[in-house]
Structures are given as structure tokens and as C-alpha cells.
Design goal:
Distance between the termini: 20 Å
Number of domains: 1
Number of helices: 9
Structural class: mainly alpha
Number of strands: 2
CATH class: Mainly Alpha
Shape: globular
CATH superfamily: Mitochondrial carrier domain
CATH topology: Mitochondrial carrier fold
Order of helices and strands: HEEHHHHHHHH
Radius of gyration: 21 Å
Strand order of the largest sheet: 1-2
Largest sheet: 2 strands, antiparallel
Strand content: under 5%
């Protein structure tokens, strides 16, 4: 019996949902301060981002960050220049209070919780289905299941992300938002609600595939090395951090391209339709390399790894702990009957 509950006391789908939901909430609570600091540093280095709202993601949880002047008032106060992450933490707490480190948390939870529930539940269901068909010894099952699960969750949540981004970036009332969406659908069709889906999938699907492949590999290796039949909290935490870091490093160029595509989409909203032309992913990559060299494709690697490693570690260890809890609960209930 492994920690995922495969076997006699297998956990139910609803228990998987509860575990992923709790994991998402815990991750958002602990990682949001890192996001706030990261965003402030990004705004400081690129003033043109002010007033924009971006969808941040580590491949496991997605959430919108409003940089400044958003409807939720996120990141609206000034704390002067920051000299690195530690300095930003200190100055924000001193000048704006500790609560500011959790700015935008409701928005983060509103997007990350449903996304994570769909994603993790879908991964476990797919993984179990592939194992029953192909056997447990197939090392590529996590790679395939992870990629498909991310594709499904990104597709389902994409319209929600688009609606939330518009709501935050333009200070629209719900009535205005409904009118805006109706006009958009009437003009461009229902597929317009999935605008930005391509760059998101281009980054998140490879991230997810790499993440789960490496996570399962590290977990299995550590269990064997330490002589454990089931993964402990420390094993899942370490495996999640390592797998998240590797996936972030391998997919960062796609993340940079996604940011450029988002900026392009916002710029097009003030440009006449006849003059709009969206560059392809390949064109954006060539432009970045021409202007900044190959290192330009890895811009922001420090802040991304600083956030991704702990986020992945906290999320997966919380999720696995939740499943282990329900596994033990199911076992006790069965024994009592």
C-alpha cells in the first residue's frame, strides 16, 4: 500500500478533492508574501507594468496578481526602492504593515483552489487508470498523466482567468463585466473566452509533465535509499521542491514568452483592430534572443525559483499528507466494522 491509497483502503474522489483544496489554501497562505515581494520588485524594474494584472503560476496553482491601481487595491502603496528580496520584506512590513504581505490573497484563492482541485484530482485519476492498464513499472505514467491533467485544468479554468483579469484590471462592475463578455462573445465567438490559452498551455503542460516525472522519481529513490515503504512528509517535501525547481528551470523560456504575449494582448486593446498583429511564439523568442541574447529567455530565474521551489514543496506535501490522513481514516472505519 502506498501513500496514495492505491489498494484496499483507496481514498475516494471527494477525499482527493478535500486534500487538494486544503493543500491549495495552505500553499497560498504561505507563498503569497513571496509573490507580493516578487511583484513589487518586478514593478520597480519595469514601471510599465503598473496598473496591469498578471496571472502568476508555478504549474500547480494559478492566481492573478494586480500590480497597482487594481480594483482590489492590491500593491497600491509605495515603499520606496528595494535592494533585493530581504530588503523588500523589511521595508514593506515596516512602512505598510504585515497584512500587506498577504495582499491579493482572496483573488489568489478564488483562482488557485478550483484550478488545483481539478488538476490534482485529474492527475490521480489518470495515474491510477494508466497504472491499471500499463502496470506500475512504467516510468512515463507520471509524465503523461501530469501533462494531460494540466491541459484539462488549464482549459477548464481559462475563461475564469480571463474574466477575473478583466474585472481586476479595469475596475468593472459585474453588470459591466457581463456586458463586456456578451459583446466579446457576440463579436468574436465563444472561443474568445480562451484568449491566452495557447501560451499558458505551452508553459504549464511541459512544467507539469517534468514536475510529476521528477517528483515520482525522487520520491521512489529517497524511499528506497532511506528504507521507507511509504513516503514521509520530509521525503514528499524535498521531492516536491527539487522537482519544482527542475521544471521551472526547463520551462522558464516559455514563461518569459507568456509574459510577452500577455503584454502584447493588453497593448492590442488600445490599438485599432486593423493594425493588430500578434507575433507567434517563435517570433517572440527570436526577438528576445536578438535583443538580450539567450540569457534573455531566462530572465527572472532567481525570483521564479525562489517562489516555485517552496510552493511546489508545500503543495505536494500538504496534498500527500491529506491523502494519507484519509487512507488511515478509511482503514480505521473498515476495521471498526
Amino acid at each position: 500500500m502506498d501513500s496514495k491509497g492505491n489498494g484496499l483502503y483507496k481514498i475516494t474522489t471527494s477525499q482527493q478533492v478535500i486534500s487538494s483544496c486544503c493543500g491549495s489554501v495552505i500553499t497560498s497562505l504561505l507563498v503569497t508574501p513571496l509573490d507580493v515581494v516578487k511583484v513589487r520588485l518586478q514593478v520597480q524594474s519595469n514601471p510599465s507594468l503598473k496598473g496591469k494584472s498578471f496571472l502568476e503560476s508555478d504549474g500547480l496553482t494559478d492566481h492573478v496578481c494586480v500590480y497597482e491601481n487594481g480594483s482590489s487595491g492590491t500593491y497600491h502603496k509605495a515603499s520606496g526602492r528595494f535592494n533585493g528580496m530581504r530588503d523588500a520584506f523589511v521595508k514593506i512590513v515596516q512602512r505598510e504593515g504585515v497584512k500587506t504581505l498577504w495582499s491579493g490573497l482572496p483573488t489568489s484563492l478564488a483562482v488557485s483552489v478550483p484550478t488545483t482541485v481539478i488538476y490534482f484530482t485529474c492527475y490521480d485519476q489518470l495515474r491510477d487508470a494508466f497504472i491499471s492498464t500499463l502496470g506500475e513499472d512504467n516510468d512515463y505514467i507520471p509524465l503523461i498523466a501530469g501533462g494531460i491533467a494540466r491541459l484539462v485544468s488549464a482549459t477548464v479554468i481559462s475563461p475564469v482567468e480571463l474574466i477575473r483579469t478583466r474585472l481586476q484590471s479595469r475596475r468593472l462592475t459585474y453588470k459591466q463585466l457581463h456586458s463586456c463578455i456578451s459583446n466579446k462573445v457576440t463579436k468574436d465567438g465563444w472561443l474568445s473566452l480562451w484568449k491566452g490559452w495557447g501560451p499558458t498551455v505551452l508553459r504549464d503542460v511541459p512544467f507539469s509533465a517534468f514536475y510529476w516525472y521528477n517528483y515520482e522519481y525522487f520520491k521512489k529513490t529517497l524511499c528506497k535509499k532511506l528504507g521507507k515503504h511509504e513516503a514521509t512528509f520530509l521525503i514528499t517535501f524535498s521531492s516536491g521542491a527539487a522537482a519544482g525547481s527542475i521544471a521551472a528551470l526547463l520551462t522558464l523560456p516559455f514563461d518569459v514568452v507568456k509574459t510577452h504575449k500577455q503584454t502584447e494582448i493588453w497593448a492590442s486593446e488600445t490599438t485599432p483592430t486593423s493594425q493588430q498583429r500578434h507575433a507567434s511564439v517563435w517570433e517572440i523568442m527570436k526577438r528576445i534572443v536578438a535583443e538580450h541574447g539567450f540569457t534573455g529567455l531566462y530572465a527572472g530565474i532567481g525570483p521564479r525559483l525562489t517562489k516555485v521551489a517552496p510552493a511546489c514543496a508545500i503543495m505536494i506535501s500538504s496534498y500527500e499528507y491529506g491523502k494519507s490522513f484519509f487512507h488511515r481514516l478509511n482503514k480505521e472505519k473498515d476495521m471498526n466494522h
